Amino acid sequence: MYSIAQLQDLVNKQVAEKEYPAQPSELYEPIRYILGLGGKRMRPVLLLMACDLFEGSVISALPPALGIELFHNSTLMHDDIMDNAPLRRGKETVHSKWNPNVAILSGDVMLVESFRLLTHVPQAVLKKVTDVFTGTALGVCEGQQMDMNFETSEGVTIAEYIEMIRLKTAVLLAGSLKIGALIANAGDEDADNLYRFGESLGVAFQLQDDILDVYGDPDKFGKQVGGDILSNKKTYLLIKAMDIAEGLDEEELQYWLNAEESDPAAKVRSITDIYTRLGVRQLAEEEMNHYAEKALSFLARVTAPDDKKQLFKDFAEKLLVREN
To answer: With contact defined as beta carbons under 8 Å apart, do 193 and 301 qualify?
Structure first.
């Protein structure tokens, strides 16, 4: 089995060596730029891990792995426009550095190229792989639309939120794993169990992201702590707090959510204090652990040697045990 670090190196080399036409430069330079911002490459790495688990050729699976990374970055490029985000991994976003029209079109090219790369699989599994990929891509778009709908919706439930993060975040992890398994000719049941492992792991990962956005160390988390609070983003913690807050806690929470102008530091501090009093951090951690355990239960059903599956447990632990 390859190590996670070895697979990351293979993906990074593939990204660096990928060639694009020189012209029109406004179309292709943004692609080189966003891919050059780095990242953990965890989605293509998961594809390669799954392929390696069932003794498939990791080298032959590099083109579809790169396709997954291109698709992921195309969604980031478009999401940044919708969020009007100025920074991505500490650097200017594509639409800020160029303009939104350039970012839209470059993202479209990445999507097309990702599909082309995903077809570089054995003919015997081509239809299965493309079905998984197209289903995954549709799910990501559905999740993004749900997330945008939540911005103006007053009655978002925990169940609706979990479904949104399943689509927006988790299905791409799950789809990457299933595609890697299919490339290696794994059985349908094993491929499905690996998919469900990734799906549950993705939900747990996003729940932890919600927790770290409030309680994380910004130097270690890599994002602005309290950003979700400042934007009134409907995360697990906010939805749960709105469900259970009563009396003064409910009144104070509504005050900060509806205040048109407020001191950002005071808002973050006050809402964090409400979360702490209500115990929503503990509730979110319990939910995260539920999905992490669910992920491991699906991994246990995969018919592969335990020593090989250990790498997936290590990956899950690395993903979920982050500095806070």
So the answer is: yes
Task: Return the number of other C-beta atoms located less than 10 Å from residue 173's C-beta.
Answer: 27
Q: Name every residue whose Cβ is closer than 8 Å to that of residue 130 and which is 6 or more positions away in sequence.
A: 115, 118, 119
DSSP sequence for 189-248: HHHHHHHHHHHHHHHHHHHHHHHHHHHS-HHHH-S-TTHHHHTT---HHHHHHHHH--HH
CA 44 to chain centre: 12
- Asked if 185 contacts 126 with a C-beta cutoff of 8 angstroms, the reply is no
Looking at the fold, whether 30 and 152 belong to one and the same domain comes out as yes
CA distance 66 to 75: 14
**Whether residue 107 is found in the same domain as residue 238:** no
Phi (first) and psi of residue 153, to 5 degrees = -95, 135
Residue after which a domain boundary falls, among 133, 163, 185? 185
Residues 134 and 11 in one domain: yes
Cα–Cα dist 287/267, whole Å: 25
Q: Is residue 311 part of a domain?
A: no
pLDDT digits (tens, 9 = 90+) for 131-152: 999 999 999 999 999 999 999 9
pTM of the model: 0.94
Does 21 share its domain with 142?
A: yes
321 lies in some domain? no
Tell me if 69 sits within 8 A of 43, measured CB to CB. yes
Residue 263: CB atoms within 10 A of its CB come to 10
Summarised one tens digit per residue, pLDDT across range 89-105 is 889 999 999 999 999 99
Nearest to 128 by CA among 194, 188, 218: 188
Domain span including residue 272: 187-305
Residues 249 and 235: their CA atoms lie apart, in Å, by 18
pLDDT digits (tens, 9 = 90+) for 187-246: 999 999 999 999 999 999 999 999 999 998 766 554 557 889 999 999 999 999 999 999
- Is 147 inside a domain boundary? yes
CATH number at residue 89: 1.10.600.10
**Cα 91 to Cα 176: distance, rounded to the nearest angstrom:** 27
